[in-house]
Amino acid sequence: MSTILHIDSSVRAIDNDNPSHNSLSKQIARQFVESWQETSSIDEYIYRDVGVHPPQFITQDWIGAVFTPQGKRTADQKRLLALSDTLIDELTRADIIVISTPMYNYGMPAQLKAWFDQIVRVNKTFDFDLKRGDFPLAPLLSGKTLVAIASCGEFGFEEPEIRAKSNHLMPHLRTLSRYLGVETMYEIVSEYQEFADDRHQASLTQAFEQAQSLALALAQSQQITHIDEQLV
Ligand SMILES: Cc1cc2nc3c(=O)[nH]c(=O)nc-3n(C[C@H](O)[C@H](O)[C@H](O)COP(=O)(O)O)c2cc1C
């Protein structure tokens, strides 16, 4: 069984009249999904473009609803949590999570952060217990694989490169991935978009190739797992 949850978060579309305006991160993510489909079927494919359709920001009332015991929530509180419930249900069903994101101001877009704020929720995706000492939060989901795909205008964001200390995108996704139940994370990054030179072309080509080869490898390993399950 493979359920893929695909979250795109660039505010740019993928089908603009001028193709040079198309989102690169969305195109690389699409390459991943299409390459997967060439090898293996996807049992369930859940797609959200949070860049174009952002989830609501959480509010004080939202937090109040989260901390109200489920059986005591008012109709208004249930309504406030409805989107969060739906997004968490989508996450829970997924084996593979594909998140594509641009780098905006050295981090993730506010729209993608809004999605995380809706789903990283106490007693749903993590629980909190002071008996655990200095690390009271523990994820409730497990066994998921994350493919994180990013496009940046500048370059050199990994240690020991020149902008490693300015990278608040992948390190943030790595930290949050734990609360999605992620146990294996792959990262594909295209850089140099703002330089529009050969380095950008090379970086973009490499990202497309990585998306393709990773999709083929993961799709095949899922097929093998599926066959193993049938044999048991
Ligand atoms: C609002 C905004 C902020 C950006 N901030 C950064 C940045 O901090 N660092 C960087 O390397 N590129 C930055 N960029 C460039 C984007 O990361 C780059 O254009 C990327 O390809 C956008 O992703 P997309 O092609 O999927 O839309 C920014 C672009 C925009 C529109």
UniProtKB/TrEMBL annotation:
Gene3D superfamilies: 3.40.50.360. Homodimer. This is FMN dependent NADH:quinone oxidoreductase. FMN binds at residues 10, 23-25. The lineage of its organism: Bacteria, Pseudomonadati, Pseudomonadota, Gammaproteobacteria, Alteromonadales. One of its GO terms (molecular function) is oxidoreductase activity, acting on NAD(P)H, quinone or similar compound as acceptor. Keywords: Flavoprotein, FMN, NAD, Oxidoreductase. The gene is azoR. Its cofactor is FMN. It comes from Pseudoalteromonas rubra.
